Amino acid sequence: MKPKEIAEASIEGLNSNDLEGFMSLFAPDASFTHMGLPETIEGVEAIRNFILETKKIFPDLTIQVDKWIVSSNDVVAEYRSHATHAETGKHMRNFGAFVWEIHQGRIQHMKDYFDMARLIHQLGPDFVKHRPE
């Protein structure tokens, strides 16, 4: 697969709750930087656990890509997301960008830049107590 196809497949995996399909796109030593967390998530098992926890909190999380930017092995997607917070029933809509670094046909590093202030405004300040670590 080409880098953009890998990025598209990862979005499809997230949207369809296909965790195994999503994880199969990552290199064994991959990392994931989520701008809402203090540290980068290292390794596929840690990434898998993060996604599992995220999907528990937002089981209907859906991502819609509005714009793609592709440069050799790097892919950027500007996105809109929406989901319902499982514990409170509050609905959220947010904006962000994913950045994928693809090496040898696998995701080596993925970054998620999103608007945490907007998220907290919609879900309330207690939300930060419930986000995945």
CATH C-level: Alpha Beta
The proportion of residues in beta strands is: 35-45%
Q: How do the SSEs run, as a string of H and E?
A: HHEEHEEEEH
Give the CA-CA distance, first to last residue.
31 Å
| Helix run count | 4
Task: Find the CATH topology.
Answer: Nuclear Transport Factor 2, Chain: A
Structural class of the secondary structure composition? alpha+beta
How do the strands of the widest beta sheet line up side by side? Answer: 2-1-6-5-4-3
Total number of beta strands: 6
Rg, Å, rounded: 14 Å
- Biggest sheet architecture: 6 strands, mixed
Helix percentage range: 25-40%
Low-confidence stretches: none
Q: Name the assembly state.
A: single chain
Average pLDDT works out at 92
CATH architecture identity: Roll
C-alpha geometry: globular
The total tally of domains equals 1
Summarize the structure.
This protein has 133 residues and is of the alpha+beta class. The protein is built from 4 helices and 6 strands.
Description:
This protein is an alpha+beta fold and 133 residues long. The chain has a single domain, classed as Nuclear Transport Factor 2, Chain: A, CATH 3.10.450. It is 30% helix and 41% strand. It is built from four helices and six strands. It has a six-stranded mixed β-sheet with strand order 2-1-6-5-4-3, sandwiched between helices.
